[in-house]
Design goal:
The protein is of the alpha+beta class. The chain has seven helices and 19 strands. Helix 6 packs parallel to helix 7. It is globular, with a radius of gyration of 18 Å.
Amino acid sequence: MLQQRTLKSLTRAVGVGLHSGQRVELTLRPAAPDTGIVFRRIDLPEPVDIVVSAEAVTDTRLASTLSKGGAKVLTVEHLMSACAGLGVDNLMVDITAEEIPILDGSAASFVFLLQSAGIVTQNAPRRFIRILRPVEVREGTGANEKWARLEPFHGYKLRFEIEFHHPAVDSTGQCVEFDLSTGSYSRDIARARTFGFTKDVEMMRANGLALGGGLDNAIVMDDYKVLNADGLRYDDEFVKHKILDAMGDLYLVGKPLLGSYSAFRSGHALNNTLLRALLAQKDAWEVVTFEDHLLAPRGFAQTAAAW
């Protein structure tokens, strides 16, 4: 049987929120089978548990935000991406503020936290959402066109293409395909950082956003070049970060996907629209388990190796 996974022990980190600039303490705890991933706001007078689901996403401006009643948790996508990449099904995430810490702007720190805690199997079958037929969503036309699509595939792969018309971005790879069964998430994707432009920072800060952002947790560009002294971590770091974000956004469906995702200029909003379109079409998907782990797609039967 292909089993669910959780952490062996708890692990902690302290950082600041990218948009709020608030200090936040993060504690990752093991969780029982079929718990899913649950964010717990322990700073509120009465702690609130927010269970990950596509329907719990209430804001997708610059990040993915989950809400329950008046409680919310912002910028969950990098931690969710690490959980998807390492195959973590059940996890309690305690936070002392409303935003997940940005740490270094990638998923690498979350990968380190999860692996340092240890990932263990549980006595319950791992449930996947298997795509049975294509589902696609589109927005805009011409130069503003963007789209995202899910199609049947025995495994999980993602293909993303970007188009920014910026010298620093245009000189790097514009399209990447990542197959979870043949690639290494921690090596190939996890270290790609979020990025932004100096011309947008003042506008965002005037709107109470990007208050915790800087050169130590993002790739920052002026009109011509990357301003970070150490340059890029990958030749195609920009598009790889979009793959990283997409993996986190799609894992908000609550179960790992078996299928192929492809997108052009998509973002948090369109990724969530795609999930909602999928769930609304009951004939487009089914929930499956693998009693014989040898029948599962290659790469899904192993827990992620330490890097």
